[in-house]
Amino acid sequence: MSGYLEGVLVLLAVNVVFAYGGLLPLAAGQLNLGLAGFAAIGAYASAYLSNVFKLSPLIAIPFAGIVAGAVALIVAVPVLRTRGIYLALATFALGQIVQAIILNLEVVGHRRRTGLAVVCNAFRNRGDRGSR
Question: DSSP string of 45-97?
Fold first, then answer.
């Protein structure tokens, strides 16, 4: 299988997971707009574990899922007490808060090409090695 086709299939699988993640709560009458925030937490945790602790992605991804699930559990306690538009606004705010933290907090990269930017470059360079 070519690298391009593999990349397309991975993106397709990720988008299917996001679509079901948005559809299931909606079918129950709740609108969750914070899915991207939890995905970002899991992705950052996975990249951090892979690069800093040198864990295999097969081990880092489940641990990152546990981290994102723990954050979701902490957030769910107060957020799930709201109903209607307030639930949608609270989950949307969570996604925006995660984005602001990733973009502005110095520990996760700030705007200085450290932290998250270094992790993203490491993954980008890892992909380049396999295609040569």
Answer: HHHHHHHHS---HHHHHHHHHHHHHHHHHHHHHHHTT--THHHHHHHHHHHHH
Query: 3-27 vs 35-52: helix axis angle to the nearest 10?
Result: 140
Q: What are phi and psi of 115, to 5 degrees?
A: 60, -115
pTM: 0.73
Is residue 87 a part of any domain in this protein? yes
Q: Give per-residue pLDDT as tens, 3-22.
A: 899 889 988 998 898 888 88
The parent domain of residue 91 ranges over 31-131
At 1 the pLDDT is 76
How many domains is the chain built from? 1
Mean pLDDT is lowest, of 17-21, 101-105, 119-123, for: 119-123
User: Which letter does DSSP use for residue 8 in this model?
Assistant: H
